[in-house]
């Protein structure tokens, strides 16, 4: 590009190169941020800020930030959230980070044409958030509707190495955020290898 081997700047080929460079740079930055986040959690360097959070709003913010990317991937996202939910005592910035990474990986792993459904409920003295994939989508070879468990992910966790798939770096960060809040992240696999991700916050963090 610097030497204009394909003609003057502004041609379509240069625009494609610029998009590829931007995409690669963004992906690298995300990986670095995830690594730093996990390293902080592993060394107990994170001090959570306790504030009353609205989990519905945090999810909406995370989804809105991925609206364009989801559209480009042919993926829809639906939020099912009741109008009244208990407040959540937690660190809003860390929660946003965990939700952002979860949704980003879900979009990346979903097949074109599917809908990702985010359901938020207060059940059994806990606050639950589930992410599931709905619809058949467009099959590409042996595509498995992986959600955030991506066999092609270059950064994988050796934890639970006996499972069918390895956990992606971004999902590991989301799990760490949940653990810092006393919560859990569980993964189940249904028909056609569709994943369901469940986030659960304990009752002691709920503000009613």
Automatic annotation (TrEMBL):
InterPro entries xrefs: HATPase_C_sf, HATPase_dom, His_kinase_dom, Sensor_HK_Regulatory
One example of a Gene Ontology biological process annotation: phosphorelay signal transduction system
Record keywords: Kinase, Transferase, Two-component regulatory system
Keyword flag Calcium: no
Gene3D superfamilies linked: Histidine kinase-like ATPase, C-terminal domain
Pfam families: HATPase_c
SUPFAM superfamilies with a match to the protein in the record: ATPase domain of HSP90 chaperone/DNA topoisomerase II/histidine kinase
Recorded catalytic activity of this chain's protein: ATP + protein L-histidine = ADP + protein N-phospho-L-histidine
EC nos: 2.7.13.3
Molecular function per GO: protein histidine kinase activity
Histidine kinase domain residues: 1-205
Keyword presence, Membrane: no
Enzyme class name: transferase
Name recorded for this polypeptide: histidine kinase
Organism annotation: Aerococcus urinae
Top-level taxonomy: Bacteria, Bacillati, Bacillota, Bacilli, Lactobacillales
């Amino acid at each position: 590009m610097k030497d204009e081997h394909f003609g003057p700047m502004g041609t379509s080929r240069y625009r494609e190169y610029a998009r590829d460079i931007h995409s690669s740079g963004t992906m690298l930055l995300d990986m670095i941020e995830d690594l730093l986040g996990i390293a902080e959690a592993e060394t107990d360097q994170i001090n959570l800020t306790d504030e009353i959070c609205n989990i519905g709003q945090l999810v909406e913010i995370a989804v809105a930030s991925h609206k364009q990317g989801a559209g480009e991937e042919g993926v829809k996202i639906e939020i099912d959230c009741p109008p009244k939910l208990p407040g959540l005592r937690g660190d809003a910035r860390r929660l946003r980070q965990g939700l952002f990474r979860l949704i980003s990986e879900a979009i990346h792993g979903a097949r074109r044409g599917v809908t990702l459904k985010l359901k938020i409920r207060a059940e059994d003295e806990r606050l639950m958030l589930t992410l599931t994939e709905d619809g058949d989508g467009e099959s590409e070879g042996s595509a498995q509707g992986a959600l955030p468990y991506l066999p092609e992910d270059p950064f994988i966790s050796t934890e639970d190495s006996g499972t069918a798939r390895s956990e992606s770096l971004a999902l590991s960060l989301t799990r760490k955020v949940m653990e810092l809040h006393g919560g859990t992240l569980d993964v189940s696999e249904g028909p056609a290898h569709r994943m369901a991700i469940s986030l659960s916050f304990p009752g002691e963090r709920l503000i009613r």
